[in-house]
Amino acid sequence: MWERLRKLRKELGLTQTEMGARIGCSLSTMCRLESGKYEISDYIVRLICVTWNVNRDWLVNGTGDMFTDASAALQYTIDDVFNRLKNACRRLTSEQQEAVILYIQNVAEEFSERSHILKQDEKSADPDQ
Q: CB of 77 within 8 A of CB of 22?
């Protein structure tokens, strides 16, 4: 698997330092992962796959395409976020949970509004429309 990790990093045009920073690994850890001295944990595999839309089967087994389509990666990311939120909220009081829900709703609404504005800007900038 370490050979594919190196191939991926080079395909992405990243240094070991840059890739490591995105997944929370030091330069020395990245060197050891790419040389096969450290086993690449499932946690690191998941981070890599989510961060760069990498096909897990390709990274782990060498089968399939290097990258997945963005929509599949986005769904995996959303599922992961929901699971992490659910686990974190279990430790909160009901009032704190309600505050988190309201905050997330506000953020989602703001992103939705920004996305709508960006789509309108793209349409107005497109001379074919």
A: no
Residue-wise pLDDT for 53-65, tens only, equals 899 999 999 999 9
CATH topology of domain 2-61: 434 Repressor (Amino-terminal Domain) (1.10.260)
What CA–CA distance (Å, rounded) separates 63 from 57? 6
Domain boundaries, the chain: 2-61, 70-125
Amino acid 95: pLDDT: 94
Mean pLDDT throughout 70-87? 66
In the block, residue with structure tokens 């001379």: 127
**Tens of pLDDT along 3-38?**
999 999 999 888 999 999 888 899 999 999 999 999
For residues 8-32, one letter each, b for 16 or more C-beta atoms within 10 angstroms of the residue's C-beta and e for the rest, the string is bbeeeebebeebbeebebeeebbeb
In sequence order, the β-bridge partners of residue 54 are: 67
